[in-house]
# Entry
Amino acid sequence: MQVQRTFDASTLNQNVVSALQQEVDLGVQALTRGSGEVAVTFFQSALNKLTAEQPFYDHLVHNLLLAYKLVIENLLKAGNTAMASDFLRAALRLEIRGEMAEDSVFVKKFADNFQSLGLVFFQNGRFDESLLCCRKAISVNPRQSSYVNLTNALTATRGRARLSDFTAEITPEQLGRHIFIACVPKSASTFLKNLLVNLTGYRDLFSVYAAGQSEHELYLPTLRDSAHLDTVTQQHCRASDANVHLMQAFDIRPIVLVRNIFDSVMSLLDFYTKQGAFYNTYFRADFQSLDQETRIDLLIDNVVPWYMQFVASWDLVEKEKRLEITWLRYEDLIGDKPAAIAEVLKFYGLGAQQKAVEAKIRETESEGRKIRFNKGIAGRGNTGLTGSQKEKIRRLSRYYPTTDFSRIGL
# Structure
């Protein structure tokens, strides 16, 4: 409950001061005994007697919010969701406009009440109202902790995220252009990213908190810092709700790069064994002591499910039209690089002369180890995996009966 405070009333008519004091006292008493609607009446009446420039104005606004919150909670308990929504609309109009707008602790408490109200609506299955509360709280006092509730509300409503959900420092018109490669490992993604950087002159951006054993989830602080730039990003990320929301907000339309799953296993085996990439895994304590067949089994049991989830998640995003995406197969990329690059550029509304593309392809291929791109041999999985290993991979697809896995050779 808002603590009672004293303020300079020398500029007010004494009759007004007396009425204010009485209404505030009665409002606080009503809050104490749980009479929210009575408290609303008294605080509204008191607030109408003040302007934002007067010292107690913001405290009355906060008290009125507490009263609205109590009324809404009681209405939801009683199942009166329509009236609860009406009171919410009134609460959302409240603003801290006086001297307390500079008090970070006060503003935080004000925002926290909207977050709390959002949770109450969420728990009552009123997801649209919950989202409104989350957005109000963020507009008042944006904090990293706010985005957990925002993501839950956006997911529940299937609504689209807005740029204003995550930053007030830039407008949609000020956003740069973002080429984003959502890719499975060992799919020539580094080659594709470097080629696009060379072709466009866009900045190479890796938008994660940390790599190594971490999932390549989009990292909001990096997105904020680079939102105004033209960028190319390559990340091994599934279409989690959080990733999709950030892409919606920052106008990111991804290329989804995939590869034949059997060939992927063999390429991963080389990557872990010959290039020491097992150090970036949770297998690093024992991987080197395993024989080759066991290493392949390990990859099938532990890594291939991620590939399945990757394809299934992006397939669903496309079907639900949550993002505009374009698929690219490794086999098509290495089979005709100029044609594949032309399609990528077309997707982003960009263009380049074929000779320029071919020159940049040669330049990028000359980078050698930097791009970790082999000669593009397809079909190794057919001979490198046993029949039982291939069947084990095929059986994993049965968990996703609506997903099109033909893109990865299943």
